[in-house]
Amino acid sequence: MTAKHALQGLNVAITRPAEQAQSLCDSIESHGGVAIRFPLIAVSALQDYQAFDQQISKLQRTDWAIFISTNAVDFAMPRVLKNLAKNHEALPENLRFAAIGHQTAGALGQYGVRKVLIPQGRFDSETLLALPEMQDVAGKTLASFRGIGGRELMAETLKARGASVYFAESYQRVNAQQNTELLKTQWLKNQLDAIIVTSSEAMRYLLDMADNDEWLRHVTLCVNHERIAELPRKLGLKVLVANAPGDEAMLQCLALLARSRLVK
Predict the structure, then answer these.
(1) What gap in Å lies between CA 41 and CA 58, rounded to an integer?
(2) I need a labelling partner for 5 at 20 to 30 A (CA). Which of 38, 56, 88, 255 fits?
(3) Residues 187, 174: Cα–Cα separation, whole Å
């Protein structure tokens, strides 16, 4: 994306956790748009890691460690390495790693994990599960590193293929907002055109808080996966889906919205 003013006059709310939103906010503003920081989800450590420590004690007998997000890496790997060091152990040589996408694989690289299986094309559970390595799992043990309460699709599919699956949950997500008054006020002032939502959980929070308020029907929801678009579409809301993961595709999605507003 090269047009410096491609998003000129476009007011966009970003609902990612605050620590993950900065680069996208900077990109929107560098292309002439206005970024409104409105984190719907906050990510934090667990109060008690006893269950997590018990789960990772199984790593020596585990074939695959699957990481669902960069958060899963950042909250889990320091504790994994610390526990191994305490027992004078290293990561098991037979343990293979898989990640949901390039960013998650890159995060693993920060902890010395260089060889990581990642899907091609779309970066989601479905695409990872379609890889040949995830088909041939009968009799194998897999660990799913995630936050508390993640999707069950990965585990259910792998179990159906004959694998033994356990969860290593290392962080929690909480709703970071109490209501949507800020967004409603921005819209009433004609200063809100789009809301970026990049997780199904954040979308549920937004829709629950907005409670079918009329203002939301006049704002375009920009998402990065068809799965996230399903619920707002059923409610008759305006949705645009980026054609690929990552900030660049989301910027292209916003540029399309900006051009459509100009021709009205």
Answers:
(1) 30
(2) 38
(3) 25
β 141-147/194-197 pair status: unpaired
247: which 2 tokens?
């900030």
Residue 255 β-bridge partners: none
User: What does the DSSP 8-state code read for residue 59?
Assistant: G
HEC assignment per residue over 69-100: CHHHHHHHHHHHHHHHHHCCCCCCCCCEEEEC
* Max CA distance (Å), the chain: 66
d(CA 130, CA 126): 6
Instruction: Say which residues have a Cβ less than 8 Å from residue 156's Cβ, sequence separation at least 6.
Output: none
Residues 6 or more apart in contact with residue 60 via CB below 8 angstroms:
89, 92
Confirm if 39 and 21 have CB atoms less than 8 A apart.
yes
Core vs surface per residue 108-125: b (16+ CB within 10 A) or e: beeeebeebbbbeebbbb
Helix axes 247-262, 18-30, angle to 10 degrees: 50
Other beta carbons within 10 Å of 144: 24
Is residue 26 pLDDT above 90, yes or no?
yes
In tens, the pLDDT along 77-98 reads 999 999 999 988 889 999 999 9
What number of residues does the chain have?
264
pLDDT > 60? residue 232: yes
